[in-house]
Amino acid sequence: MNSHRAAFASFAFLIAxxxxxxxxxxxxxxxxxKIVVGSDAGxxxxxxxxxxxxxxxxxxPGSPSFVVQNMPGVGSLIALxxxxxxxxxxxxxxxxxxxxxxxxxxxxxEQSKYDAAKLNWLGAPITITYIATAWKDAQVQKAEQxxxxxxIVGSAGGASxxxxxxxxxxxxxxxxxxxxxxxxxxxxxxxxxxxxxGNGGDALNNLKAVHWxxxxxxxxxxxxxxxxxRNPDIPDVPMAIDxxxxxxxxxxxxxxxxxxxIGWPYVTAPDVPAERVEALRGAFEKMVQDAAxxxxxxxRKLDINPAKGADQLALVKGILTTPRAVxxxxxxxxxxx
Length: 337
Description:
three-stranded antiparallel sheet, D-Maltodextrin-Binding Protein, domain 2, 11 strands, 337 residues, six-stranded mixed sheet
């Protein structure tokens, strides 16, 4: 009798799962979904979002189409507040956001009208390792020299500002930051002209896509990694956290740098029905392994190093349990940037 009950329960479970998938397919069939990108058109986030928009619908039951909408401002905060609070919560709107939105919740809860731990994290096509670089003629050619010698770096904001500020404030490094460049490209051109000597915070995948020949030809040296684990592309480059001398320094760096492993994430609102969230997560995982997707990414010169939604959620929950003392230590360094 027990074996019959178990078999019946298993059969009922399969039937329920098939019905749920059919319901998801019925909902998405003929729909046009939206990816809301928290940055301008033409940038890295936008490029990945348009790649995702081309392929993700192929793996969602019902095969919906996609459109991309750019909603830049305040490090994706405007876009995320929209997705979490204004957009339909039916699984038709996805946010492509900056992972700093998680730490923003700690530094500026008054601006963050969401709980990152309650968002539905779907995955990311790319996880990021940020780096610091020095031009061939700079006095600083090794990370160790940053404790005694200034390296003049140009900044257009974002990581090129917050990351050198972070290691200056926490570790005592000596990046001298020149702000006001309109773009990372303008800051890079200034380095080539000799106006500055390096970049204090650039994404490794961006460097690989645009200026890897300069690294290959020893005109540009990668001197520091902000990653929390070794990147196989730069195995001999020291990590910032290697220079931490106290537990408090390590905790501060982990808080500020852990969003790299979250990647450039895709999320939906907390109230999206669970079966649709699971369908979207499953679609994302299938997409980043698909040959056509990977081929298209290669054509667009976009690296793929994905993160899963469940792993992202675990990282987010860990970040949000950071002791308040550590948050307050970082606030005057990067919290207001």
